[in-house]
Specification:
Oligomer: single chain
Distance between the termini: 49 Å
Order of helices and strands: HHHHHHHHHHEEHEEEEHE
Largest sheet: 7 strands, mixed
Structural class: alpha+beta
Shape: elongated
Radius of gyration: 22 Å
Number of domains: 2
Length: 295
C-alpha cells in the first residue's frame, strides 16, 4: 500500500506538465485528461517504482497516447464526442471544466491552437515536444517512428506552417495589426464609438451562408448599421477572437476553446477597415492559410 501511495504521489507531481503536453497535442481538455489517465494506467503496469526518469517516461507515454488519438480522429476539425472519464489516479481530481478549458486555451494561444489543429499528427507532436517543451529529437524520433533527422524535418515543416508565409512587409503587417487590435478592443468592450473609429463609413461586410445563418443578411453596407448588429452578435464571441495571419494578412479567428468557428478577413485602407468578409463554411475555413502573429 505504501509503495502504491508513493507512486501515486510521484505521478501527481507530473500531472500538470502531462496535461499541458496532451492539451497542446489534442486541443481538448477532456481528451488531454484521458491521455494523462492512460499514462497513469500504463505506469501502474510498468513497475513504476523501478523507472529512474519518471518524468521522461510519462512524457513519452502521454505523447504516444496523444499521437494515437490524433491519428484515430475521423476529421481534423471534428469536435470530439464526450468520453467517459477513466477512474482517476489516487488522490487526483480531474478538471474537465469549460471555463478552465477556456482559460487554458487562452494561455496556449487560440490562434496557435487553430494552426496546430491543421498540422499532420507527427508534425504536431514533433513541434510541440521540441519547440514548446525542449525535448531532444533523439527522444522524439522513436515516438513518431522516424530518425532524429526526420523528426527535425517534421518540426521544421510544422514551424513554417505556424509562422506562415511572409507575404507582406513587417511595416504593413504592423499597421494592419494596429487597426485589427483596435477593432477587437472596441468589439470586446461594446464600444460603438471606438468601433466606428476604425471602420470606413462606407464599410461593406459580406458573410457566407453559414456565417449568415439564422436570418442574418449576407451583405451589410455602412459602418453604423453593421456596428450596431455586431455589438449584439459578436460581443460574446469576441472573447474567443484573436488576431492571426490569414492568407498572409492580419485577420481575426474566432475559436471557442481553440476550435475554429469563424474567420474575419479585412481590406484596410488609410487606417480604416473598408471591407470585411466573414467565413463560416467549414470547407472554406479549411482552405484558408492561418498562422500565428509574432507577439
Amino acid at each position: 500500500m505504501g509503495e502504491n501511495q508513493s507512486l501515486a504521489e510521484r505521478f501527481e507531481a507530473h500531472r500538470a506538465h502531462l496535461r499541458q503536453v496532451a492539451y497542446r497535442m489534442l486541443g481538448s481538455l477532456s481528451e488531454a485528461e484521458d491521455a494523462v489517465q492512460e499514462s497513469w494506467l500504463r505506469l501502474t503496469r510498468a513497475e513504476g517504482s523501478e523507472i529512474e526518469n519518471l518524468g521522461g517516461f510519462l512524457t513519452t507515454v502521454v505523447a504516444r497516447v496523444s499521437l494515437d488519438m490524433l491519428r484515430s480522429r475521423k476529421s481534423r476539425r471534428e469536435e470530439p464526442l464526450p468520453a467517459p472519464v477513466p477512474e482517476p489516479a489516487p488522490g487526483s481530481t480531474p478538471m474537465v471544466d469549460p471555463e478552465y478549458e477556456a482559460v487554458l486555451a487562452d494561455s496556449v494561444g487560440l490562434a496557435l491552437l487553430v494552426v496546430l489543429e491543421r498540422l499532420a499528427p507527427a508534425e504536431r507532436l514533433a513541434f510541440v515536444l521540441h519547440d514548446m517543451f525542449a525535448i531532444p529529437f533523439e527522444e522524439i524520433a522513436p515516438i513518431v517512428g522516424r530518425s532524429p533527422a526526420a523528426a527535425r524535418q517534421l518540426a521544421s515543416r510544422a514551424r513554417r506552417r505556424v509562422q506562415g508565409p511572409a507575404s507582406a512587409s513587417s511595416a504593413d503587417l504592423a499597421r494592419q495589426r494596429d487597426v485589427v487590435d483596435a477593432f477587437l478592443s472596441a468589439l470586446r468592450a461594446g464600444d460603438i464609438q471606438g468601433l466606428l473609429e476604425v471602420l470606413d463609413p462606407d464599410l461593406v461586410v459580406r458573410a457566407d451562408a453559414v456565417a449568415a445563418s439564422g436570418g442574418a443578411a449576407t451583405e451589410v453596407r455602412g459602418a453604423e448599421p453593421w456596428a450596431k448588429q455586431a455589438l449584439a452578435a459578436y460581443r460574446r464571441g469576441a472573447r474567443s477572437a484573436r488576431a492571426a495571419l490569414v492568407d498572409g494578412a492580419v485577420g481575426v479567428v474566432i475559436a471557442p476553446r481553440g476550435r475554429l468557428f469563424r474567420v474575419l478577413t479585412f481590406t484596410i485602407s488609410a487606417g480604416k477597415i473598408v471591407a470585411m468578409d466573414v467565413v463560416g463554411d467549414p470547407a472554406r475555413l479549411g482552405q484558408l492559410e492561418v498562422a500565428v502573429l509574432d507577439r
